[in-house]
Amino acid sequence: MQGLFKLGFVEDPWGTRIEVVQDPEKLGLHHVHLRGPDPAAILGWYKQKFGGDTAKLKDRIDGLKYSGVWLLVQRGDAVPSEGHAIDHIGWRTPNLAEKALQLKAQDVKFTTEPRPLKLASGTMVNFAYLEGPSGAKIELVQR
Question: pTM for this one?
Answer without folding.
Answer: 0.84
